[in-house]
């Protein structure tokens, strides 16, 4: 079946005629809005569990981008040590380089010090008003949301997206969370660092490029 230019113009005119100006503006705004996922963490180091979580959320929610946002100093884990930020950024760059959906968001690293998610998201919503944000968290973090600074206000700025890890207790909190199914892969950065320290293999737990970077820079040789 073919349509002439006249037919196309008539159909478009009929469609516009059936919409009020407010409706048309609303539809245009909806089309222009971007859907951005944010996966925060120390990424010390980034591993396949991080990538799998981001891929599943990005795919299932049809996000335009997923930002990997390494933190400078974790506010909820006092005393936790991380390697220098340039190593974590370099490993992240290697880990996500073959996936156009993934981006690095260095805002908290560049800002330095302790960063609270509420402050970061206020910055993003002010500077990216055309975007809707989906903050990706694991099941363990979901149950700790009441400990986050200004959690009530934060839920007005972002949609939390939860991904359960093996063995995590069910979510019992009061905040709205959109749960996404994902293959359960029980990998942790803590275990990877320990394996490197013990000179054990971390192959298939981190991308090969990340494994080579850890070896070449002799990371995690001390705990």
Mean pLDDT figure: 86
Gyration radius (Cα, Å) is: 21 Å
Strand content: 5-15%
What is the CA–CA distance across the termini? 69 Å
- Please identify the structural class as seen in this structure: alpha/beta
The backbone outline, from C-alpha atoms, is: globular
Q: Report on the biggest sheet.
A: 6 strands, parallel
Helix content: 40-55%
The helix/strand series, from N terminus to C terminus, equals HHEHEHEHHEHHEEHH
Number of strands: 6
* Unreliable spans: 1-10
- Order of neighbouring strands in the sheet with most strands: 3-2-1-4-5-6
Please explain how this structure is put together:
The structure is a single chain. This protein is α/β, with parallel strands linked by helices and 223 residues long. It has helices at 5-17, 21-32, 48-60, 85-96, 107-111, 117-127, 139-142, 151-157, 189-197, 208-216, and strands at residues 34-41, 65-70, 102-104, 131-138, 159-163, 177-179. It has a six-stranded parallel beta sheet. Strand 1, helix 3 and strand 2 form a beta-alpha-beta unit. Helix 4 runs antiparallel to helix 10 and helix 6 (117-127) packs parallel to helix 8. The longest helix is centred in the first third of the chain and has 13 residues, at 5-17. The chain starts with a helix and ends in a 7-residue tail after the last helix. Mean pLDDT is 86; it is low at 1-10.
